[in-house]
């Protein structure tokens, strides 16, 4: 059987749906946007962790973004 893609549950999201929607001024937010945004945020955080570790730090800083 084909492996089914797991949908992100609201409790699993890093981002806040309400705050995301509040930040959008002149558009509506589709339901699928939240999962995609959450995925991108997780990628950014992972990249920042890699950079911090490469610089021998355990603390993420703005420069890691």
Task: Kindly describe this structure.
The protein has helices at residues 17-23, 31-54. The protein is mainly α. The chain has a domain at 34-65. The longest helix has 24 residues, at 31-54.
Class computed from helices, strands and strand pairing: mainly alpha
- Helix proportion range: 40-55%
Rg over CA atoms, rounded to whole Å, is: 15 Å
The helix/strand order is HH
Quaternary structure: single chain
Estimated share of beta-strand residues: under 5%
Q: Summarize the main sheet.
A: none
Shape call: elongated
- By DSSP (H or I, 4+ residues per run), the number of helices equals 2
* Model regions low in confidence, pLDDT < 50 over at least 5 residues: none
Say how many strands there are.
0
Distance between the termini: 39 Å
Quote the average pLDDT: 90
Quick summary of this structure?
This protein has 65 residues and is an all-alpha fold.
State the main characteristics.
0% strand, single chain, 65 residues, mainly alpha, elongated
């Amino acid at each position: 059987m084909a492996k089914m893609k797991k949908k992100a549950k609201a409790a699993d999201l890093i981002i806040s749906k309400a705050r995301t929607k509040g930040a959008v001024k002149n558009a509506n937010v589709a339901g699928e946007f939240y999962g995609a945004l959450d995925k991108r945020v997780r990628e950014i955080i992972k990249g920042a962790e890699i950079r911090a570790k490469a610089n021998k730090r355990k603390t993420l800083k703005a420069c890691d973004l």
